[in-house]
Structure prediction request, 395 residues.
Amino acid sequence: MSISPLMPVYPRNDVRPVRGEGAYLIGERGERYLDFASGIAVNALGHGHPHLTKAIQEQAATLMHVSNLYGSPQGEAFAQRLVDNSFADTVFFTNSGAEAVECAIKTARAYHSSVGNNHKNTIITFNNAFHGRTLGTISATNQEKLRKGFEPLLPGFAYAPFDDLNATLDLVNDSTAGFLIEPVQGEGGLRPASQPFLQALRDICDKRDLMLTFDEVQCGVGRTGKFYAYEHYGITPDIMASAKGIGGGFPMGACLATEKAARGMVFGTHGSTYGGNPLAMAAGQAVLDVILEDGFLDHVNSISDRLRGALEQLIPNHDHLFESVRGLGLMLGLKIKSDPRDFVAHLRDNHGLLTVGAGDNVIRILPPLNIEQAHVDEFIQKLSEGAASYQLPEA
Ligand SMILES: *Cc1c(COP(=O)(O)O)cnc(C)c1O
Prediction:
C-alpha cells in the first residue's frame, strides 16, 4: 500500500506546527515562524488568544452540542449580534465557508422560487472566483483546476470577467437569479472589485429584483479594516457568506440575509447537524468581543497603513522581483515577477516567514489582525532578506 493514511490531496510543505503563540508558529523541532498566513485568514486573533481559548474551554465544559432540534439561546444571541452589526436580518450557521456559500446559493434560488419565479435560477459568478470545494461551490467557479475530474457539475451558473461591467450585463437575462461575488477576491489574486462595478451590480439587482450575494468568507470579519468588506463600498448585499476569521480557528461559518432575501428559507428547507452549536457560538462571540471592541478596527487600519507603506518602500529596492502592492486592510497582496509559490517556499524554508500564494503572481500577506509594529518590522526585515537571497528560477 503506498497511499498515505491522510488522503494525499494537499502538497504539504515541511513546516509541521505543533504550537502557536500569537503571531508565531512553532514546529516539531522547536523552530519558530512568523505567521503572516494566519491559517489562510482564519486565525484573526493569532494563536492561543487568551480570551478565545478561555471561552472555548469554558463552553466545552458546559455544553458542546445538542443539535438543532432544541432551542438555542447561544445561537440566538450570536445571530442577534451579527444582525446588529451588519446589513442582515437573519443568519444560518454552518461549519465551513463552502457550506455558507451553499446556503447563500440555496437562499438566492429559494427567493425566486418563493415568489413564483422558478425559472430565475442562474447565478452569475466571476472568473478566478473561489467559493469552496463542494460540488455546488466548484460549479460556481470556472477555474478548471477546481472542477476537472468531478463532472458532471451543477447547472445554473454563468461566468463573467471580474470587474467587467459590460461583459457581466451581457449575461443577464430572464433566467438570472443574481450574482455571487467576492468583493475582494482572495485565492484568485487578491483583487478588490471597484466601487462602480459593485454599485452597478447593486443597481441592476434593485431594478430587476435579483439577489446580490457576497462571498466574504475570506475578506470579512475585520480582515479589510471594516467589519465586513462591503462597508468600504457604501452598498449592502442581500445575502452574504462569512467564515474563516469568524471562529478565529474554530470551524464555523454563517450565511447572512435580509428578511426579504430569506423568504424562501422556511421550516424544513435547510439544516446542519453541527451548525451553530454552543461551542461554535462561544468561539464566535469571543472573536467578536475583540474585533468589535472600540478601537480594534482602527488598529487594523493603522497597522495596515504602516505595513503597506513599508512594502511600497521596499519595492524599488527589489524591483527585479517585486511589482506592486494591492488589497485592503490586512488582506494584502504583493505582486511579484516570478512564481509566487516558489518565493513563498523560499521565505518559509530559509527565512522563517509564512505567507500564502495566490493567483496572478501574488503572494498573500494575511497576518493576525492584532499584530503590532514590531511584527511589521520583523516581517519587512525577513521579506527584504528573503528577496535579497532569492535566486530567480531559470526562465
Ligand atoms: C476559503 C474560502 C471558501 C471556502 O471555505 P471553506 O471553509 O474552505 O469551505 C469560500 N470562499 C472564499 C472566498 C474563501 O476564501
Remarks:
- The mean pLDDT is 97.
- The CA atoms of residues 43 and 248 lie 5 Å apart.
